[in-house]
């Protein structure tokens, strides 16, 4: 059984179903949990062949209505989400530099049902990894960076840890929300390499083998989505450098990485919402 499914089942039994009533808003706990998993994946930093470090301190920004609805349960929900991150990290063989914490915050610029996830790596003074125990966490940042700022990877490891490279090796990512790639631009594909593109819908992978892919409720769409909130020809993904998504005049529009839009650039891990269906865009070299 997957980590997200276990998390969902645990949540169903909490507070005699209280969470089930609270989460009638568009934001579902399993969506937040999935976003935390992607935040770990997108900000994993390879230290050596046996150790990959991921953020351990997360902020989930919610719209005012969703925050007011969830804030009475923020402590318990935060603990459950932290436990889910710990389980996922164990499954992926990720490690942490300190205790895992998940906080909820209000963001006035978000509409109901939309959210953002930010993360940072905090080093525990006792150098313990994972788990809620250990000493107080101390923020670390690179030279010239803002101490404790979200979006910055650690500049030094705790005592006894292997040294961290000045930049991630090929295939690695700098840690943190919004942290730019080395050199200020994405690395172009290797000469002669080929980038593969696909989307994931409810755990099912759909390869993108052509330059364009139309998603919609119609049987004529390249990928059919059986969702009453999805138009017959809802949107179109165009692969390239970069890949993009375009709304095709749908009734309910599209949401890309938490933002309502008609056109957006896609990156590996981009979260697309059409109707009540979530689509994850993926790309990889090779």
Fold and architecture overview:
- With 286 residues, this protein is an alpha+beta fold.
- Helix content is 19%, strand content 29%.
- Strands 10-9-19-18-15-16 form a six-stranded antiparallel sheet, with no helix packed on it. It has a five-stranded mixed sheet with strand order 12-11-13-14-17, with no helix packed on it.
- A hairpin with a 4-residue loop joins strand 13 (235-238) and strand 14 (243-247).
- Helix 1 (3-12) packs antiparallel against helix 3, helix 1 runs antiparallel to helix 5 and helix 3 (29-42) packs across helix 5.
- The model is unreliable at 15-25 and 127-192 (pLDDT under 50).
Descriptive key words:
286 residues; alpha+beta; six-stranded antiparallel β-sheet; five-stranded mixed β-sheet; 5 helices
What ranges have pLDDT less than 50 throughout 5 or more consecutive residues?
Answer: 15-25, 127-192
Mean pLDDT: 73
Strand content: 25-35%
Task: Please list the strands of the largest sheet in the order they lie side by side.
Answer: 10-9-19-18-15-16
DSSP, total strands: 19
Shape: globular
Structural class from helices and strands? alpha+beta
Helix content: 10-25%
Rg over CA atoms:
20 Å
**End-to-end C-alpha gap:** 29 Å
**Count of DSSP H/I helices:** 5
Give the helices and strands as they follow along the chain. HHHEEEHHEEEEEEEEEEEEEEEE
């Amino acid at each position: 059984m997957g980590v997200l499914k276990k998390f969902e089942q645990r949540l169903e039994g909490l507070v005699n179903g209280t969470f089930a009533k609270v989460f009638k808003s568009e934001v579902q706990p399993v969506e937040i949990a999935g976003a935390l998993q992607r935040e770990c994946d997108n900000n994993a930093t390879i230290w050596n062949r046996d150790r990959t470090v991921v953020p351990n301190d997360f902020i989930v920004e919610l719209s005012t209505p969703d925050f007011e609805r969830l804030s009475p349960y923020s402590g318990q929900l935060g603990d459950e989400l932290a436990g889910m991150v710990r389980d996922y990290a164990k499954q992926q063989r990720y490690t942490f530099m300190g205790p895992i914490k998940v906080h909820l915050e209000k963001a006035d610029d978000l509409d109901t049902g939309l959210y953002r996830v930010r993360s940072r790596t905090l080093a525990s003074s006792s150098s313990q990894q994972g788990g809620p125990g250990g000493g107080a966490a101390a923020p670390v940042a690179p030279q010239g960076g803002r101490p404790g700022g979200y979006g910055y990877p650690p500049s030094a490891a705790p005592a006894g840890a292997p040294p961290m490279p000045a930049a991630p090796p090929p295939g690695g990512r700098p840690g943190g929300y919004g942290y730019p790639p080395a050199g200020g631009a994405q690395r172009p594909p290797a000469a002669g390499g080929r980038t593969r593109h696909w989307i994931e819908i409810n755990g099912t992978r759909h390869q993108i083998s052509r330059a364009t892919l139309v998603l919609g409720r119609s049987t004529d769409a390249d990928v059919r989505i059986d969702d009453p909130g999805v138009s017959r020809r809802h949107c179109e993904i165009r692969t390239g450098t970069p890949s993009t998504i375009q709304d095709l005049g749908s009734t309910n529009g599209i949401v890309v990485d938490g933002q309502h839009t008609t056109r957006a650039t896609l990156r590996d891990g981009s979260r697309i919402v059409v109707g009540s269906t979530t689509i994850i865009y993926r790309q990889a070299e090779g």
